[in-house]
Amino acid sequence: MQMYPKLATAVAISMLVSTAALAQTQTASDKGQWQASKLIHMNVYNAQNEKIGDIKELMLDKNGKVNTVAIGVGGFLGMGERDVAVKFDQLKWSNEPPKSASSAGTTTGSAQSQANRDRNYPDHAVLDATKDQLKAMPQFDYNK
What is the rounded distance in angstroms from the CA atom of residue 123 to the CA atom of residue 93? Predict the structure, then answer.
C-alpha cells in the first residue's frame, strides 16, 4: 500500500517538471514574434513624425510571409481615403511613441519605456515618404 503514494508523488513531480520545461520552451520561441492583429490600424509616420496613414492590411505570400502592406492615406474623417501598397521591408518599426510638440516637454519614465519594449508588437511604423508621395501612388488593388 505504501508504494502507491510514492508512485503518485513521483508522477506528479515529473508532470510539474515537464510542464515547466514546456512553458520555458514556448516562451523562448515566442520572443521576437509580433501579433499581426496589433499591426492592423497601426499609425504610420514619416521621418518628421507626421502621421501619413495607417495600416489597413497585411498581404501574405503563399508561404505565410508578409510581403506587402496596404496603407490608408489621404482623406479626412474616413472620407476620400484610399489604400496604397508598400513592401514590408520599407517600413521601420518603433517601440516608442512618436515625439510630438505636445510631448516635447514631458519625459516618459524608464518603466514606461521598458513596458513599450516588452510588448509583442511595436508602437508605430515609420515610412520614408511624404503625404504627397503616398497620395501620388496608385490605388492598391486587392484582387491582384
Answer: 8
